[in-house]
Amino acid sequence: MEERILTKHPQGKRGVHISKQRYDVVREAIHTYPDGNPIRPLPTSNTF
Q1: 41, 48 contact by CB (below 8 A)
Q2: Which residue has the higher pLDDT, 32 or 19?
Q3: Among residues of the chain, what percentage have pLDDT more than 90?
Q4: What string of DSSP letters covers 16-36?
Q5: 42: number of CA atoms within 13 Å, CB side?
Q6: What is the DSSP letter of 46?
Q7: 27 CB contacts (<8 Å, ≥6 apart)?
Q8: What is the mean pLDDT of the segment spanning 22-46?
Q9: How far apart (Å, rounded) are the C-alpha atoms in residues 14 and 18?
Q10: Mean pLDDT of all residues in the chain?
Q11: d(CA 11, CA 19)
Q12: Is there a contact between 2 and 19 (Cβ–Cβ < 8 Å)?
């Protein structure tokens, strides 16, 4: 069974369940410029 996480909503509303693999892909895309350079270092802790 794949690992799933519960996302947080910025306004405190209920988040959604998403697969950890998909979350990691989206997280990396948000923190990376289109040319592949990081916008800022990604935090290494596993706090969601």
Answers
A1: no
A2: 19
A3: 35
A4: -EEEHHHHHHHHHHHTB-TTS
A5: 17
A6: -
A7: 42
A8: 79
A9: 13
A10: 84
A11: 22
A12: yes
